[in-house]
């Protein structure tokens, strides 16, 4: 009898911790953590981690059990092939949702992997319209699209800056080509002229041949569809060659890193760019987020960490409302979510895009960035 009692007590002791155990919710993160876009990827990863810290402090329960959120972070190196590989790795790890990717060129192919697995994906940065127009019910984004970013800077360049004749360069990525196409379309509709379109690569560093050709075209402005890793050297070489026209671009060249990369080539009103949302200090929770982010990671916000933070929070909110962390159970709640976040109010349309996207146009006065227009 004593032996049986001992076995029963041991069994109860073994079961008890399990009954009170936390459920682990795995949030996948796909972004470049190496290479020229690593500063953006780390910014996204840190935004996700800050949200997870807050969720774990909140004591959330789902399905009657306390939950603990964990991030599984993978480096896609801004490479489409690697992007699909890490997407499959996240699926194999049985993540409950994904925040990512950064580049459109990785986000688009990865989205099919997540769609096939039925795992919701929210990109905090990818802007190519194709991402949410493939018919995947699992794809969402919390930033505007290229037709908004590229289109608005195109219209602004003609209507407000009074520029008429443009050269366009893009880096042949899904993002660079997409935003350049939209710039061209909007600039032409506003009465502008495209004198020449040139192409480079997203690993290029020498643009002198392209710029020499553009210099002879006598343009009023140059639009670059690409990232700051190339945009900075491009501006330096414009200065070297005596090309005294503004450089225009979208969010890829609107970062604090652009100032470091371009150096003294950024004078006063030499650069105009469009970026998602409003300035960090104008976001509803921007100043608090900035200070908490700096204290937690010892780094300044680049661009996308507030959007990554909000993406995690809206995903967790959908899980809470569905009372389930199962992707298929909470996906309907994600579609109809309404969330007032750090960046503003987030609601998705039928495609998974923002119902009311906002963007800001900036110029630079040396190292200081100035918001000059907020557009919707």
From TrEMBL:
Pfam families to which the protein is assigned, alphabetical: Peripla_BP_6 (PF13458)
Keyword Metal-binding attributed: no
InterPro entries: Leu-bd (IPR028081), Leu_Ile_Val-bd (IPR000709), Peripla_BP_I (IPR028082)
Name this protein carries in UniProt: Branched chain amino acid ABC transporter substrate-binding protein
Annotated CDD domains: PBP1_ABC_LIVBP-like
GO BP field: amino acid transport
Secretion signal span: 1-21
Gene3D superfamilies: 3.40.50.2300
């Amino acid at each position: 009898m004593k032996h049986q009692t001992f076995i029963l007590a041991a069994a109860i002791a073994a079961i008890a911790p399990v009954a009170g155990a936390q459920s682990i919710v795995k949030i996948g993160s796909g972004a470049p953590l190496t290479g020229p876009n690593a500063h953006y990827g780390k910014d996204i990863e840190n935004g996700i981690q800050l949200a997870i810290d807050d969720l774990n402090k909140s004591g959330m329960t789902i399905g009657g059990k306390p939950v603990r959120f964990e991030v599984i972070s993978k480096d896609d190196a801004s490479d489409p092939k690697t992007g699909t590989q890490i997407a499959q790795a996240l699926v194999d790890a049985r993540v409950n949702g994904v925040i990512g990717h950064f580049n459109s060129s990785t986000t688009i192919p990865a989205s099919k992997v997540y769609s096939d697995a039925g795992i919701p994906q929210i990109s905090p940065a990818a802007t190519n319209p194709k991402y949410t127009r493939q018919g995947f019910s699992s794809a969402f984004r919390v930033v505007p699209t290229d037709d908004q970013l590229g289109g608005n800077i195109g219209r602004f360049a003609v209507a407000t800056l009074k520029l008429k004749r443009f050269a366009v360069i893009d880096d042949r990525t899904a993002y660079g080509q997409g935003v350049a196409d939209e710039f061209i379309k909007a600039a032409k509709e506003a009465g502008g002229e495209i004198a020449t379109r040139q192409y480079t690569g997203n690993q290029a560093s020498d643009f002198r041949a392209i710029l020499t050709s553009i210099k002879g075209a006598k343009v009023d402005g140059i639009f670059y569809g690409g990232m700051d890793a190339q945009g900075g050297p491009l501006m330096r070489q414009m200065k070297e060659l005596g090309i005294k026209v503004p450089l225009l671009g979208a969010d890829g060249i609107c970062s604090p890193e652009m100032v470091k990369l371009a150096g003294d080539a950024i004078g006063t009103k030499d650069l105009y760019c469009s970026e998602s949302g409003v300035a960090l200090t104008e976001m509803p929770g921007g100043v608090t987020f900035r200070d908490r982010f700096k204290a937690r990671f010892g780094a300044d916000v680049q661009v996308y960490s507030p959007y990554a933070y909000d993406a995690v929070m809206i995903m967790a909110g959908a899980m809470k409302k569905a009372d389930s962390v199962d992707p298929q159970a909470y996906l309907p709640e994600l579609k109809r979510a309404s969330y007032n976040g750090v960046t503003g109010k987030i609601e998705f349309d039928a495609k998974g895009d923002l119902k009311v996207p906002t963007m800001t146009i900036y110029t630079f006065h040396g190292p200081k960035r100035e918001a000059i227009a907020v557009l919707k």
